[in-house]
Amino acid sequence: MGHQKLIMESDNDQPICSSLTACFEENQGLAIVLEHEDYEEPEYNYKIKAAVDQQDTCLMAQNLKVFPSSLPSLLSNRFGNTSGAIAPSETEAVFKEILEFILDCGARYRLKRT
């Protein structure tokens, strides 16, 4: 994956941490990644990626009247919170909001959990 733009991140000093980033993949499609880390019980760690293919990324940008390359910054500005004083559940809620926003822009995505 290419350059990542941080959208939000929970407090790293807590036993459970989550982050939300946006970036472009090699296929020029947009990817939104939710990463959940449990420092005490690592078996509960996971990543969920919402992948928007190149065609839908362009459609989304067109509907928002921006260049596709500015989508990660747009998402960060619209949904971002880098204060660090947020709970992992808030990060997950914003991930869902972004998924709804992608659909509202006329684009589709595929979810992949790792």
Task: Describe the structure in your own words.
The chain is of the alpha+beta class and 114 residues long. The protein has helices spanning 54-64, 71-79, 88-104; strands at 5-9, 16-24, 30-38, 46-52, 110-113. It is globular and about 45 Å long. Helices cover 32% and strands 30% of the residues. The protein starts with a strand and ends with a strand.
Task: Write the topology of this structure.
Layout: E1 5-9, E2 16-24, E3 30-38, E4 46-52, H1 54-64, H2 71-79, H3 88-104, E5 110-113
Antiparallel strand pairs: 1-2, 2-3, 3-4, 4-5
Give a quick summary of the entry:
By secondary structure, the chain is of the alpha+beta class. It has helices at 54-64, 71-79, 88-104; strands at 5-9, 16-24, 30-38, 46-52, 110-113. The chain is globular, with a radius of gyration of 14 Å.
